[in-house]
Amino acid sequence: MRWDELFDDLAGQFDAGLEEERRRAAIDEERLRVTRLTLRDRLGALDAYLAADERIGLQLHTGERVEIRPVEFGADWFGADLVGVVRSYGACIVPLAGIAAVLLTRDQISRSLEPLPDRPGSVAGRLGLSIPLRDLARRRAHCEITTVTGTCYGTIDRVGRDHIDVATHDVDVPRRQSQISSIRLIPLSDVTLIRIQTD
Fold first, then answer.
1. DSSP readout, 111-157?
2. CA atoms within 13 A on the CB side of 59
3. How does pLDDT run across 150-181, given as a tens digit for each residue?
4. Helix (H, G, I), strand (E, B), or coil: what is residue 36?
5. Of 193, 43, 69, nearest to 129 (Cα)?
6. Burial grade of 50 (CB within 10 A; 0-12, 13-18, 19 or more)
7. Which tens digit of pLDDT belongs to each residue from 17-31?
8. Residues 6+ positions from 114 with CB-CB distance below 8 Å
9. What is the distance between the alpha carbons of residues 105 and 89, in angstroms, rounded to a whole number?
10. What is the pTM of this model?
11. In sequence order, what are the residues at sequence separation of 6 or more whose Cβ sits closer than 8 angstroms to the Cβ of residue 80?
12. Which 3 state secondary structure label does DSSP give 20?
């Protein structure tokens, strides 16, 4: 009878040791997963769990703050709806490199750490910033382009490897040669936000 009790006690200790080892391995695995997260991963996870009326705050390298609702994620950018539309700019493209800080609530922080839901990768998720900019150029969309040194209004004419050509003109007029005040070549590395006219 005492041998049975001894073996039961040893089995219990062994099971408790195994359970503690599994718990520690799970903690280490989670820590490793979190260390591998990128800003894009965190925003994507948060986007998957946003409530209908929720928004994400961003502070750009210019110091400007905007509130957005992500729509589509690219490799180094994301498209979003702007909350609190200024003029008729209801949508934007945000280069990830233009973000100085993401301003989240305590609840949003925890949701941004959640694993992304398993879903097939979208084509947009592999596309770089130049692809949506080329689409804006093709559509002749009027944009407000914010850079680290200021803001200009106009139409993207061309998209190079590391820069864009912007024909600057008044907000209320379409792009016409007679209305263009200048052509600016802007390095993509300086762009912090592109607001897109939606009206």
1. HHTSPPPP-PPPSGGG--THHHHHHHHHHT-EEEEEETTEEEEEEEE
2. 6
3. 999 999 999 999 999 999 987 777 776 767 77
4. coil
5. 193
6. middle
7. 667 777 777 767 778
8. 45, 48, 49
9. 26
10. 0.80
11. 68, 69, 70, 71, 91, 92, 93, 94
12. helix
Which residue is it, tokens 């024909």?
167
> What DSSP string describes 65-105?
EEEEEEEEE-SSEEEEEEEEEETTEEEEEEEGGGEEEEE--
**Considering only CA atoms, which of 74, 199, 58 is closest in space to residue 142?**
199
pLDDT one-digit tens code per residue, 32-54: 877 888 899 899 888 888 888 89
Which pair of tokens denotes residue 149? 């040194």
Distance CA 118, CA 27 (A): 21
Q: Could you tell me what percent of the chain has a pLDDT over 90?
A: 49
Unique residue bearing structure tokens 């003029």: 87
Between CA 105 and CA 112, with CA 109 as vertex, the angle to 5 degrees is: 130
Position of tokens 């609702």?
69
For residue 89, which of 97, 98, 99, 79 has the smallest C-alpha distance? 79
| Dihedrals phi, psi of 145, to nearest 5 degrees | -105, 115
Residue 157 burial by Cβ neighbours in a 10 Å radius (0-12, 13-18, 19+):
middle
